Amino acid sequence: MPADQQFDPLWAWGEDGHAPRVLHSMIRVRDVDAALRFYCDGLGMAVLDRYDMEAGRFSIIFLSYAGYRDGPAAIELTYNWDQDEDYTHGSGYGHIAIGVPDVAAMWSRLAEFGARQGTAPKSLMPGAPELAFVYDPDGYAIELIQISRQPVKAE
Fold first, then answer.
1. Domain locations along the chain
2. Which of 3-7, 31-35, 123-127, 143-147 is predicted with the least confidence, judged by mean pLDDT?
3. Out of 54, 130, 143, 155, which one is annotated catalytic?
4. What number of other Cβ atoms are within 10 A of residue 46's Cβ?
5. Does residue 70 contact residue 15 with C-beta atoms inside 8 Å?
6. Residue 14, class by beta-carbon neighbours within 10 Å (0-12 exposed, 13-18 middle, 19+ buried)?
């Protein structure tokens, strides 16, 4: 880390320092620019912190949405500068779930930002929110879940 860069993890400091909470989950990316385009431009996340570690030849970038201090956890992108091969995700990794107001629109939109479309928007059972899957530029599964509900009409 450059001498003028101080480690001050903004994603870690919350309103209540006594309540446990999920802080972040880390994924490794091969192309940091493609990953940032997907997560920031496509999904609308913001960079909270970025640390470029010259000695270790890697960067860590923390992403989240507005209001992250009071709720949503962050995603940490780790970029190893000398990584030449794709990462394997193993058989235990599932997905990252992100709530969005319009699943169908986001599912279609993300193709413009390097996403491979997976499961098309659908509801698994009556009354359940719509969901869909896409894969980010590194092949990580992202589940999109509808977070805005239509009012239920009385019969």
1. 1-82, 94-155
2. 3-7
3. 143
4. 12
5. yes
6. middle
Question: What confidence tier does 18 reach under pLDDT thresholds 50, 70, 90?
Answer: low
Count of beta carbons in the 10 Å neighbourhood of residue 143: 17
Query: Per CATH, the architecture of 94-155 is what?
Result: Roll (3.10)
Of 9-23, 74-88, 115-129, least confident by mean pLDDT is: 9-23
Please check whether residue 51 is in contact with residue 60, taking contact to mean a CB–CB distance below 8 angstroms: yes
Report pTM.
Answer: 0.82
Q: Do domains 1-82 and 94-155 have the same CATH topology?
A: yes
Using CB atoms within 10 A of its CB, is residue 80 exposed (0-12), middle (13-18) or buried (19+)?
A: middle
Instruction: Look at the block and give the residue holding tokens 């003028």.
Output: 4
Average pLDDT (127-132) is 89
CATH code of the domain made up of 1-82: 3.10.180.10
Is 143 noted as a catalytic residue in this protein? yes
Residue listed under structure tokens 């993300």: 110
